């Protein structure tokens, strides 16, 4: 299958990981095989036509076309989009996350590959994504066209370079989505937001947009079907999503956070905004990303080694 890709595997003990697996995925209503094939054909048509349409569309209209493509793709996945804007009036934008040319770092919990489609359906954005995505057939080409910033989670010494790339994009007025958990969770459980990538917002004095992202079934209950966890491959996950019925991708825009001067404080503030009163079902303790185990990785904010820490109003479209 052209969309197939292997699951992410932890190569080192300090690599971000979650305990979520097949046991977290709970069944939901399903469509028949005919609808599933039609959805797959629609997705294939979008993937194949997107590069051509993007090139032929004038730059002034590309964002509008890209958002339309993302929303159509979400519908082809059998999902509806619900956007709830809890921001104060002066932070709101009719364009989505921010007005064109206004930089913003968007942070959200990470559930699966559908997160990218759901967030792009709000407004076209760039992403920090797993490095091997750019090698995936077809999807890799799309990733390159949307200027994905690749991150190799198994090579933490490269992390300061990624932070620098994010800062450069923000300084140029771009909108960048980061998933600070560093890996995917099932949607009912989640990990802590790691502070490293927040340094880019501090370095560029860029506001951070916390996003509460979740998937709901037709009864409004949390749905774990889109979770890309455990031993999932992309093909297995895509098949599960394409079979589902009545899933809603809900995106809640919480008030923006001022970057401040401390990335750990910024990460904590954003985590509070993103999680609210929710508690992780797995109850996993915070595990450091830069500082973990016996590994000491250069701190991108101050240029010196970090200390070692042991693990201890809504619309529907």
What is the beta-strand fraction? 5-15%
| Uncertain segments | 1-8, 285-312
* CATH architecture call: 3-Layer(aba) Sandwich
Work out the number of β strands. 10
Find the CATH topology.
Glycerol-3-phosphate (1)-acyltransferase
Query: Which CATH C-level class is it?
Result: Alpha Beta
* Overall geometry: globular
- Annotation field: number of helices: 8
Please identify the oligomeric state.
Answer: single chain
Mean pLDDT: 82
Helix/strand order, N-terminal first = HHEEHEHEHEHEHEHEEE
The number of domains is 1
Instruction: Give the terminus-to-terminus CA distance.
Output: 30 Å
**Main beta sheet:** 8 strands, mixed
Look at the helices and sheets and give the structural class: alpha/beta
Rg, nearest Å = 19 Å
Helix content: 25-40%
Q: What is the topology, as strand order, of the major beta sheet?
A: 4-3-5-2-6-7-1-10
GO molecular function: acyltransferase activity
Transmembrane segments: 36-58
Protein name: Lysophospholipid acyltransferase family protein
Domain Phospholipid/glycerol acyltransferase: 104-216
């Amino acid at each position: 299958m052209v969309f197939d890709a292997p699951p992410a595997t932890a190569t080192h003990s300090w690599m971000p990981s979650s305990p979520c697996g097949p046991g977290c995925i709970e069944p939901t209503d399903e469509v028949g095989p005919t609808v599933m094939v039609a959805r797959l054909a629609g997705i294939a048509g979008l993937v194949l036509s997107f590069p051509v349409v993007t090139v032929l569309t004038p730059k002034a209209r590309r964002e509008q076309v890209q958002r339309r493509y993302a929303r159509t793709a979400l519908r082809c996945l059998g999902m509806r989009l619900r956007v709830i804007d809890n921001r104060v009036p002066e932070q709101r934008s009719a364009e989505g996350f921010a007005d064109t040319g206004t930089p913003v770092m968007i942070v959200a919990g990470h559930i699966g590959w559908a997160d990218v489609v759901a967030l792009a359906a709000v407004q076209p954005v760039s992403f920090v994504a797993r490095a091997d995505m750019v090698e995936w057939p077809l999807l890799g080409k799309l990733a390159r066209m949307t200027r994905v910033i690749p991150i190799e989670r198994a090579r933490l010494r490269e992390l300061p370079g990624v932070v620098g790339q994010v800062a450069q994009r923000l300084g140029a007025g771009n909108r960048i989505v980061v998933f600070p958990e560093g890996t995917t969770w099932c949607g009912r459980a989640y990990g802590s937001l790691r502070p490293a990538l927040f340094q880019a917002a501090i370095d560029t004095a860029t506001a951070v947009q916390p996003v509460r992202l979740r998937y709901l079934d037709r009864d409004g209950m949390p749905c774990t079907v889109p979770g890309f966890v455990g031993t999932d491959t992309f093909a297995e996950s895509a098949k599960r999503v394409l079979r589902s019925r009545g899933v809603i991708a809900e995106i809640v825009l919480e008030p923006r956070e001022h970057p401040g001067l401390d990335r750990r404080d910024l990460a904590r503030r954003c985590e509070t905004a993103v999680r609210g009163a929710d508690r992780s079902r797995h109850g996993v303790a915070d595990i450091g990303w830069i500082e973990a185990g016996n590994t000491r990785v250069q701190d991108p904010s101050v240029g010196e080694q970090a200390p070692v820490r042991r693990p201890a109003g809504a619309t529907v479209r």
